[in-house]
From TrEMBL:
SUPFAM superfamilies: Phosphoglycerate mutase-like (SSF53254). Coiled coil: none annotated. This is Phosphoglycerate mutase. InterPro entries: His_Pase_superF_clade-1, His_PPase_superfam, PGM_Phosphatase. Pfam families: His_Phos_1. It comes from the Eukaryota.
């Protein structure tokens, strides 16, 4: 009998004031709104716990962005239950927007009318190539856990990442072996969960199982 297919749970942090009004929030360390915290608590009650979609006993590890909006989301998700092994890592931070940090898309367009992050990256921040390489490194780490599960009998099968919007859109694109720019076609809502896994129990067939699970679209 085959073992269950391993999964990656990819979670965007909850609402912040800047995500609410559309400002590009990379390295700026701002908190969740009160509504953002409540959204996460609601998701946790439905998704996290013994026998639920995210069962802590099935988690190998959790990678968490060091920005407070992400690690606060992580701690709310596991509030009242045993916190799984987790690692704060800059590899899961948001795209570094550089000179465009804190700006609305309309304000960026005033500076550079043809700008598209998917093609141009961010002056003073991360290029497309740098962002793609960073995401590919964390994907390789996730895949190594899953390889150990398939090939070495690792008893826990799932991994979680708690991160950000553009990071998640890039991650989904790269997970399914597409160029980073495919991320323009994915909406990743605050407090939403994507589930990434594999077809036919094969590491060579990465797949997207779910997107924006239980997210509130405003």
């Amino acid at each position: 009998m085959s073992r269950p297919t391993p999964r990656l749970f990819l979670i965007r942090h909850g609402e912040t004031e800047w995500s609410l009004n559309g400002r590009h929030t990379g390295r700026t360390d701002i908190p969740l709104t009160a509504r953002g915290e409540e959204d996460i608590k609601e998701k946790a009650a439905r998704l996290v716990g013994d026998g639920k979609i995210v069962d802590p006993k099935n988690l190998c590890t959790v990678f968490v962005s060091p920005r407070q909006r992400a690690h606060k989301t992580f701690h709310i998700l596991f509030e009242g239950i045993e916190t799984p092994h987790h690692l704060l890592t800059e590899e899961c931070r948001e795209w570094d927007y550089g000179d465009y940090e804190g700006l609305l898309s309309s304000e960026i367009k005033e500076k550079n009318p043809t700008w598209k992050i998917w093609n141009d990256g961010c002056p003073g921040g991360e290029s497309v190539e740098e962002m793609e390489a960073r995401v590919d490194r964390i994907i390789a780490k996730v895949r190594e856990y899953h390889r150990q599960y398939f090939e070495e009998g690792l008893h826990t099968r799932d991994v979680m990442i708690v991160a950000h919007g553009h990071f998640s859109r890039v991650f989904i694109s790269r997970w399914i072996n597409f160029p980073l720019c495919l991320g323009t076609h994915f909406n990743v809502e605050p407090a939403g969960m994507a589930i990434l896994s594999y077809n036919h129990n094969s590491l060579k067939e990465p797949a997207l199982n779910a997107l924006n699970l239980y997210a509130t679209v405003r």
